[in-house]
Amino acid sequence: MAATEQELAEARAELERAAARWRELAGEVRPAETDSGIPIAPLYTPLDLPDDDRIGLPGEFPFVRGIYPSMHRGQLWTMRIYAGWGTPEDT
Length: 91
What we know:
The chain has one helix at residues 5-26, and strands at 32-33, 39-40. By secondary structure, the chain is mainly alpha-helical. The chain has a two-stranded antiparallel sheet with strand order 1-2.
């Protein structure tokens, strides 16, 4: 069943409220860009990608975009696995 315009408007408003809540939680987010110099927005939502509404927000269930609102822009990424160097006793 297709959503009515009223339902779509309510969903958009809820998403905009969630994005505002995210911006409040994430605080100041450093500007970022790709290696090619293309700017990367601090947050992309289904409003930016209308064909994929399961993207969610960073720091919110279902955590497909990470567990922290600012993710790796707010803190350095750490590698927490062993790369296979040495024996288990060595590590």
